[in-house]
Design a protein that fits this description.
135 residues; alpha+beta; five-stranded antiparallel beta sheet; 4 helices; 24% strand
């Protein structure tokens, strides 16, 4: 278990769900934009559940979710993980965070994809801790 998680465990209502992207993301995105725009958002992230790794948390009691996933097109020279938040009830937003990037053409040069992913997951977990103080 990472050191930060030992100090600040995730709030109890949040469950980790990494198997597939929750339908909630598509529903929320379509509620704030058209289906055509939603299909193009973040390089098709929410229409094509093909890119890995992802980290996802779901709070069924609040109907809220948090997602860490690649948000750039696969052909871009710099790849980036985005953090997306669906707050309780309705809405959808991208969490502004540090750039969790890696260069696929230089897979052994830091930060690697795994290092970028781990940093994004740690930042997302911190976001959940802070967000729970306001919910």
């Amino acid at each position: 278990m990472p050191h930060w998680q030992e100090l600040h465990p995730l709030p109890a209502p949040w469950q980790r769900r990494d198997d597939r992207i929750l339908p909630l993301w598509w529903e929320r995105l379509c509620s704030v934009t058209s289906a055509q725009s939603a299909a193009l958002y973040a390089a098709g992230l929410f229409t094509e559940d093909r890119r890995r790794p992802i980290a996802q948390w779901f709070n069924p009691a609040a109907n809220a979710a948090l997602l860490v996933a690649p948000e750039t097109s696969p052909e871009w020279p710099v790849q980036r993980f985005g953090i997306f938040y669906a707050p309780p009830g309705t809405g959808f937003t991208r969490v502004h965070s540090a750039a969790h990037e890696w260069h696929p053409r230089e897979p052994r040069t830091p930060p690697t994809e795994q290092e970028a992913f781990e940093a994004a997951v740690a930042e997302a977990a911190r976001f959940l801790q802070v967000e729970m103080d306001f919910v």
